[in-house]
Specification:
Radius of gyration: 16 Å
Shape: globular
CATH class: Mainly Beta
Largest sheet: 6 strands, antiparallel, barrel
Order of helices and strands: EEEHEEE
Number of domains: 1
CATH superfamily: Bacteriophage SPP1 head-tail adaptor protein
CATH architecture: Beta Barrel
Distance between the termini: 33 Å
Helix content: under 10%
Oligomer: single chain
Organism: Limnohabitans parvus II-B4
Protein name: Head-tail adaptor protein
Pfam family, one: Phage_HCP
Number of strands: 6
Structural class: mainly beta
Strand order of the largest sheet: 1-2-3-6-5-4
Strand content: over 45%
């Protein structure tokens, strides 16, 4: 078992899921709902730039470590979530329980210009 030591999770992040509401004209409008606020550790893994449609696009891949949360049990729902840390947006792609003990989770996420 690889427990989470005291002081290892030093960043407070908000976990959000997408929601659809109606705008003033009755059309669908995508919004984000907070589902949890948790302590985390955020570590960069990879950075890259690409030219897409004549524009430079940057993407940074991160590993976000959190204590186990049951809200990450459904892989389909996890792939739609995002994490917010200050003004930074991390689009979550997957949640890994590396030792299957439901103690800590590794969230693989990309930080970039996309809002999720």
């Amino acid at each position: 078992m690889n427990p989470i030591g005291a002081g290892a999770l030093t960043r407070r992040i908000r976990i959000q899921r997408p929601s659809t509401t109606k705008d003033r004209l009755g059309g669908p409008c995508r919004t984000w709902l907070d589902v949890a606020t948790v302590w985390a550790d955020i570590q960069p893994l990879l950075g890259r730039e690409a030219v897409i449609a004549g524009r430079i696009s940057a993407e940074l891949t991160h590993q976000i470590t959190v204590r186990h949360q049951s809200l990450f049990d459904n892989p389909h729902q996890v792939a739609q979530m995002r994490a917010l840390y200050k003004a930074r947006v991390f689009n979550i792609h997957s949640a890994l329980d590396e030792d299957e003990r439901r103690v800590k989770l590794i969230l693989l996420a990309c930080e970039g210009l996309d809002d999720g």
